[in-house]
Specification:
By secondary structure, the chain is of the alpha+beta class. It is built from three helices and 22 strands.
């Protein structure tokens, strides 16, 4: 049988043509489906544009700022319920500078002030009442940070060319991440440079004023104590070293180093004041020893006059939308002794309270100075008219028979009532009992 090769070729060509056309049709259907899905996602506000901005390097938005100055643009509010923009008004853009520095951008009634880190030449943002500002050469956007979502933003208003909201959000988030990264790098470099300079200065200061390599003849402690001085009042001191060549190096004025010495003082709080607790004597005793040679030492003693009032606050807080807190209860145990240096009368006082933040304080005070104790109750919130004031705390004084006189200035008043349909807090009581006191 003779085969017609021409017919076979035509058949195969037709089959190949059909296969190619079928693949093209399949590709067209796939592209159309993807396009339709994209449009549906955009219409529903669900499309994720974040991948479009991954790794993108953004120009500083400040490069676009001048092109907006003086323009009047359409503004659109974005409605997250309808997922669409609504025209708001035509707005004039005004850019305000001082010299080369951009100060703020005015969009109609809204002002957005430049926010800049001093360690970077980049403007972190422009911020105002309606959130923050982002702009390119085609659009300006006001937005808020999205609560609970790191880097997330929500559009408030768009000026200029409209774009899908999700795309704008992704662009702003990516820009902020990129720009903040540049700013953080600038800050890190500035911190590194500051640390280098500080280290150089510290090394130079150590070489000039450090005592480890110097011949020290003697040291002296000099106390700086206020005229009214006692417990809970800050004091300071300096140590002056005299070298064998006559040079003096003081720890004051950023010169010498306290860590060249072993120093003991009464227990001090974070303010540099004498803390609660009875002292071994009625003196401020400061001792310094040269660390490299402790045999070189000096002790400074200052008689403490205890001539300042001492105040304690144990009052109840007032609140906006609830009953006022009660004041705390306080007991003062007082005995009298003679000052170990001057021989004058001095009171030893132990204060006990039911406040967890200050259950016990021990201190000395001159009999003619006031122990001020505020235990008033907090005011009730008055917006609804029915929140009662807190009760005043009780102040009880137990004085030893040795006590000739003392002065307690107290406030145990109940808190004010919170409106017409409420009651004021009950006043606390102040009582004095005489009995033997020992500590």
């Amino acid at each position: 049988m003779k085969v017609n090769k021409k017919i076979i070729f035509i058949v195969f060509a037709a089959l190949a043509f059909n296969v190619v056309n079928a693949q093209k049709l399949k590709d067209r259907l796939k592209a159309a489906k993807e396009k339709m899905n994209t449009k549906l996602e955009e219409a529903a506000g669900n499309k994720d544009y974040s991948s479009e901005f991954e790794g993108k390097e953004f120009p500083d938005m400040i490069t676009h700022i001048e092109s907006w100055n003086g323009k009047t643009v359409k503004s659109f509010n974005y409605d997250y319920r309808d997922l669409r923009y609504y025209f708001s008004e035509n707005v004039k853009v005004e850019v305000v500078k001082e010299g080369d520095e951009y100060k703020y951008i005015q969009l109609g009634q809204w002002k957005f002030v430049a926010e800049k880190n001093p360690d970077s030449d980049k403007i972190a943002n422009f911020k105002g009442t309606p959130g923050a500002l982002y702009f390119t050469d085609t659009k300006i956007v006001t937005y808020y940070g999205r609560s609970g979502e790191e880097g997330g933003v929500s559009i408030k208003r768009l000026y200029g060319a409209k774009e899908p909201a999700k795309k704008v959000e992704a662009e702003i988030s990516a820009y902020n991440k990129y720009t903040n990264g540049l700013i953080n790098a600038d800050v890190a470099a500035a911190n590194k440079e500051r640390a280098r300079i500080a280290a150089e200065k510290a090394a130079a200061r150590k070489a000039k004023y450090g005592l480890a390599d110097k011949d020290v003849k003697s040291i002296e402690v000099i106390a700086d104590v206020p005229a009214k001085f006692g417990y809970f009042i800050p004091f300071s001191y300096k140590v002056v070293a005299t070298l064998k060549n006559g040079t003096k190096i003081s720890t004051a004025n950023g010169e010498g180093f306290l860590d060249d010495y072993i120093i003991t003082t009464p227990k001090r709080n974070f303010n540099g004041a004498i803390e609660s607790g009875f002292l071994d004597s009625d003196e401020l005793v400061i001792t310094a020893k040269l660390k490299k040679n402790p045999s070189i030492s000096h002790t400074k003693k200052v008689a403490i006059p205890f001539n300042s009032d001492i105040r304690f606050e144990f009052y109840g807080k007032g609140w906006y939308h609830k009953r006022g807190d009660n004041g705390y209860d306080v007991t003062l145990k007082i005995k009298q002794e003679s000052h170990s240096v001057t021989g004058k009368p001095v009171l030893r006082v132990r204060l006990e309270s039911n406040a967890s933040y200050a259950p016990l304080s021990e201190f000395s005070i001159s009999p003619d100075k006031a122990i001020i104790v505020d235990c008033h109750g907090g005011a009730g919130g008055n917006e609804d008219g029915h929140f009662n004031g807190g009760n005043g705390g009780n102040v009880r004084v137990i004085k030893d028979p040795s006590v000739e006189s003392f002065y307690v200035d107290y406030n145990v008043n109940g808190g004010a009532k919170g409106g017409y349909n409420a009651s004021a807090g009950r006043d606390g009581r102040y009582t004095v009992t005489e009995q033997s006191v020992t500590f």
